[in-house]
Specification:
Layout lengths: L13 E10 L3 H12 L4 E4 L7 H4 L31 H14 L4 E2 L4 E6 L4 E5 L4 E10 L6 E2 L13 E4 L14 E4 L3 H10 L5 E4 L5 E2 L2 E2 L2 E2 H11 L5 H13 L3 E2 L3 H6 L3 E3 L2 E5 L2 E4 L2 E2 L4 E4 L3 E2 L29 E3 L16 H19 L3
Parallel strand pairs: 1-2, 1-6, 2-3, 6-21, 8-19, 9-10, 9-19, 10-15, 11-14
Antiparallel strand pairs: 4-5, 5-6, 7-20, 12-13, 16-17, 17-18
Helix pairs in contact: 1-8
Length: 370
Amino acid sequence: MKTASAPDRRPPARVERYEAIVIGGGQAGLAAGHELARREVDFAILSDEARVGDNWRRRWDSLRLFTPARYSGLPGMPFPASPYHLADKDEMGDYLERYAERFDLPVRLNARVASLRHDGEHFVIRTESGAATIEASNVIVATGAFQRARVPEVARLLSPESHQLHSSEYRTPFALPLGPALVVGAGNSGAQIALELARYRKVWLAGRDTGHLPRRFLGRDVFDWIWPIARRATAETSIGRRMRANIRASGDALIGIAEREIREAGISRVDRVDEVRGGLPVCGGTVLEPRVVVWCTGFAPDYRWIDLPIFESDGYPRHSRGVVAEVPGLYFVGLRFQHRLSSSLIGGVGDDARFVAEQAAARREALVPG
């Protein structure tokens, strides 16, 4: 005998409407929110964090920015420290939290976005909680340059006895098993982690030499020289295009970490991991036996939740200065070299946020019936 199923008495998800939605509550999202607020746009910021700044607090314990405080502030609020202080992760997390409080930014926490689409009239955003459907005329995607940890396929072939983790999971040497460590990736993160681990164990650092810039040059912090160039070297200039090509080909130069410092720490430089033999990594023909492998191999874009045909084969969106021409009203902020070399840095994201907010505000005015 069939019985009728009980009617679904759950209340329907409410619909909220805004002129703009910012997706991402890190430095890019907060900068975008500040600029929208200045233009009196009705908006909300959706963050997947439980607390503003947690994306920084979760990083490894000894992390320090390589950009001085002078170049690490968001629009309208300099970083509160001496100009050449190198902030740690907790200082930066707390700064972002104070920034949101100071400008009373409407950050909605624990609101991870599950999908973004366009219904022909509005953008439609759904969060994982399903508590509401959000509609907006404009959307600024500000999920940043670090989304999905990139780990090479060769990692799957290593012995299960090797303790593997990505740099985004690394916290402290004392949370790792004892024994020698292989750090894969010789950029700034890899070099910093390798130096910390080398205080307690044997360390190999795998990867090509990305070059080195001294902390000070001609009596001044190196960023006093770099920053004016980073601000002016846009994707529209020949020098900007050359710098972008060089960075993509060879990676970022080490800032303030000399090759001599790596040698004196007892770290052994080896070639990239090119194969695995018997579950062990092989670097330049040499078989290594690490107990720990830390993959400092960067991040890949992860926009699977965006249901719009705007992406290149490498997963990055097609845009000009963060404006997606194919989908009017859709913008990005915080992409690496979005417009300038400084675009993904804390002190540089404000320039792109200002430009994108201007476009969104202008579009709002154009949509208002005359």
